[in-house]
């Protein structure tokens, strides 16, 4: 059309490359992000009944990105299950081992410690308590 400028192929490709793709959000892979703060709950989260985690056991709460373990003495620990390597949500728990689906990082669900690279930073510990028979995880500070 006369008088109307047509963008160059380079302009169109550059714009497409800069446009965010819906749905990638936190699951996008960002190599080299070790040490960056992954997402964690922003408000206290009711995970379920206190009896859901047995002594010596662990439970993965996929929808809340939290894992909870209970020591033999009954004390609870909770960790964010957003991988510290590339911020992928961890969706697999085998015994007490969390396995990230993106690059295979493995973490101890009881301590948050890295068991297998590429992650090199432990999971973020979250405050957890039992209130009125419910397990509540908080975002921490």
UniProtKB/TrEMBL annotation:
Its cofactor is [2Fe-2S] cluster. Keywords: 2Fe-2S, Disulfide bond, Iron, Iron-sulfur, Metal-binding. CDD domains: Rieske. Gene3D superfamilies: Rieske [2Fe-2S] iron-sulphur domain (2.102.10.10). The keyword GTP-binding does not apply. Residues 39-137 form the Rieske domain. It holds the Pfam family Rieske. Iron-sulfur subunit of the cytochrome bc1 complex, an essential component of the respiratory electron transport chain required for ATP synthesis. The bc1 complex catalyzes the oxidation of menaquinol and the reduction of cytochrome c in the respiratory chain. The bc1 complex operates through a Q-cycle mechanism that couples electron transfer to generation of the proton gradient that drives ATP synthesis. This is Cytochrome bc1 complex Rieske iron-sulfur subunit. It comes from Streptomyces viridiviolaceus. The lineage of its organism: Bacteria, Bacillati, Actinomycetota, Actinomycetes, Kitasatosporales.
